[in-house]
Structures are given as structure tokens and as C-alpha cells.
Design a protein that fits this description.
Strand 1, helix 1 and strand 2 form a beta-alpha-beta unit. Strands 3-2-1-4-5-6-7 form a seven-stranded parallel beta sheet, sandwiched between helices. By secondary structure, it is α/β, with parallel strands linked by helices. It has one domain: 3-Layer(aba) Sandwich (Rossmann fold), CATH 3.40.50. It is 46% helix and 16% strand. Helix 4 runs parallel beside helix 6 and helix 6 runs parallel beside helix 7. The structure holds nicotinamide-adenine-dinucleotide. The site of nicotinamide-adenine-dinucleotide has 27 residues, from helix 1, strand 5 and helix 8. It is an enzyme of class 1 (oxidoreductase). InterPro entries: Enoyl-ACP_Rdtase_NADH, NAD(P)-bd_dom_sf, SDR_fam.
Length: 270
């Protein structure tokens, strides 16, 4: 069903790797809601993934960019405005990667080169992206910038490893840069803290299935899916949320405010 929520809006979407990606679902839904946008991902991901299918389906162009490389970002933002015919109304940062997680390196035994690389990709890239948008004055007034995060930024999830620290940094950057974007450009900046979701990045976390099932049993509404996350993201790109900014918004079926649920109590009783 379409509400034409984003009719006439132009955007830039990072992070669609395959059809499970949150960014993929967001692109599909944004297209249905009348937006035009450019898709981007790291060159290596473009080779591995299936983004062409998405580009065809949504009538959009794909521009490769490594989100840790400021020159790539400058080029991407210039080209996107040319292609779309004006400044941007929305930007989605849907990027995360930890080499320590991927290689099974424990939090108490970090390879710091990998830690730094993961921080750059998952968190600093958001600052680099916003600084480039800001300097190029590439956002329209009342535009909206969203990044995806996870509750391990606030609470301990041991297997989330150094991604927990990356997400804490990411959420802080959203507030700090969001202040200047709000004051100077009337642009809002928020993070969405999403339920565990079976995507390529999500499934890389050790014990992911147990993690997901636990969250499902703890949440009164159950886990939020990637498609539901896409829909929530669109509301933040729409004109109905103009004064929502500097927020970390939980999209998790209620998990973040739970202590314990009946199902968990029953599972623990012997
Ligand atoms: N899946 C979950 O359980 C979950 C939960 C909460 C938040 N998130 C967050 O959602 C976001 C999207 O992840 P996803 O679950 O859709 O997984 P995904 O693996 O589909 O997406 C991650 C994307 O990051 C991209 N990326 C990695 N390095 C990059 C670089 N240098 N430059 C540009 N792009 C790069 C990948 O190519 C990929 O498209 C991430 O920020 C993730 O941390 C995921």
C-alpha cells in the first residue's frame, strides 16, 4: 500500500547489500512512496551483492563509494545531486562492520587495527558523511538524516563485541552533528535502534539465533522486521516528523523497556 509519503523527495541510500538488508527494504518502500534516490555501497560490496536488481526495480542509479573515504563521499554527493536534479531531502546511513566480530576475536583480546577499521566504517563514516553534506550544503531545509544502531550502545550484549562501542560513538555523533545541522540548515538527525534482524551483518554476530529468539520472547510486540524498520525510517523522512531530532529511537517491539516477560520466566522455571 502506498501513501505517497515521500512524493517529490530526493535521497541517498547507503548499505543495500542483498534483499535482506534494511537499506534494501527501505529503498523498495521509498520508491513505492514516490521518492527518487541514488543507491551506494562500497566497491567490494557492489561486486559481491545484487544491488543492480534493486536499482532496476527502483529506477535508480548506483554510485560506488567507500563511506570511510572523504573524496569518495564528495564525489558521491556531487553526482547524486546532478542525477536527482537538486539538493537532497533524506539520507540513510545503514552501514556496519566489525572485523573482530567477523574473525571471532574476543572483546578481551582485540586486534586494534581491526578495531580502528571497524570504528571508521561503522561510526566515523557517519561524521564524514554529515561533514561532507554540511560543507557542500547538499541538504534541503527540513531534510532528514537517519543512521541505524543497536541497543548494545546502552546495555551489555557480550557477543556484540566492539560493535557496541561503535554504536555508542555513532549515536553520539548523531546528537553532536545534529545540533549544528539543526541550527544552521534546519535538517534533523536521528538514529533508529532496531531489533536483531537476520541480515548479513546481523548473522555475523556469534549466537545470533539465540539472541533473536530471546528478544522475540521479551518483546510484547515481537521483534521488528527489516521491512517494518524500512517503514519506520520512511516516517522520519516524511514531513510528519519535522521537529524530531537528536533522538535515538527504539524500534524493537518494546524490548528496551522490558525487565522480564512471562515467557522468559516460564522458560527459567524448573
Ligand atoms: N541486523 C541487525 O540485527 C541489526 C540490528 C540493529 C542495527 N543494525 C544496523 O543496521 C545497519 C544495516 O545493517 P544490515 O543489518 O542491513 O546488514 P547488511 O550487511 O545488509 O548491511 C551492512 C552494509 O554496510 C555496508 N558497508 C560495509 N563497509 C562499508 C564501507 N566501507 N562503505 C560503505 N558501505 C559499507 C555493507 O556493504 C552492507 O551493505 C547497520 O548499521 C547495522 O549495524 C542491524
Amino acid at each position: 500500500m502506498s501513501y505517497n509519503l515521500l512524493k517529490g523527495k530526493r535521497g541517498l541510500i547507503f548499505g543495500a547489500l542483498d534483499e535482506n538488508s534494511i537499506a534494501w527494504k527501505t529503498a523498495e518502500r521509498a520508491h513505492e512512496e514516490g521518492a527518487t534516490f541514488v543507491l551506494t555501497n562500497a566497491p567490494v560490496a557492489l561486486r559481491m551483492g545484487t544491488i543492480k536488481t534493486l536499482a532496476e526495480k527502483t529506477n535508480s542509479e548506483v554510485i560506488p563509494a567507500d563511506a570511510t573515504n572523504v573524496e569518495d563521499l564528495q564525489d558521491l554527493i556531487e553526482k547524486s545531486q546532478e542525477i536527482l536534479g537538486g539538493k537532497l531531502d533524506f539520507v540513510l546511513h545503514s552501514i556496519g562492520m566489525s572485523i573482530n566480530v567477523r574473525k571471532g576475536k574476543h572483546y578481551t583480546d582485540q586486534n586494534y587495527n581491526w578495531t580502528q577499521k571497524g570504528l571508521d566504517v561503522s561510526a566515523l563514516s557517519f561524521h564524514k558523511l554529515m561533514q561532507t553534506l554540511y560543507k557542500k550544503d547538499a541538504m534541503n531545509e527540513w531534510g532528514s538524516i537517519v543512521a541505524l544502531t543497536y541497543m548494545a550502545a546502552q546495555r551489555v550484549f557480550p557477543d556484540y563485541n566492539d560493535m557496541a562501542d561503535n554504536k555508542a560513538y555513532l549515536e553520539s555523533v548523531a546528537r553532536s552533528f545534529g545540533y549544528f545541522f539543526g541550527k544552521d540548515k534546519k535538517v534533523r538527525v536521528n538514529t533508529i535502534s532496531q531489533s536483531p534482524t537476520p541480515t548479513s551483518a546481523g548473522q555475523g554476530v556469534k549466537g545470533f539465533t539465540g539472541f533473536m529468539n530471546y528478544a522475540e520472547k521479551m518483546s510484547p510486540l515481537g521483534n521488528a522486521t527489516a521491512l517494518e524498520c524500512a517503514d519506520y525510517t520512511l516516517t522520519l523522512f516524511s514531513d510528519f516528523t519535522k521537529k524530531v531530532t537528536l533522538q535515538n529511537l527504539y524500534h524493537d517491539g518494546g524490548f528496551s523497556n522490558m525487565g522480564v516477560s512471562q515467557e522468559i520466566v516460564e522458560a527459567m522455571e524448573d
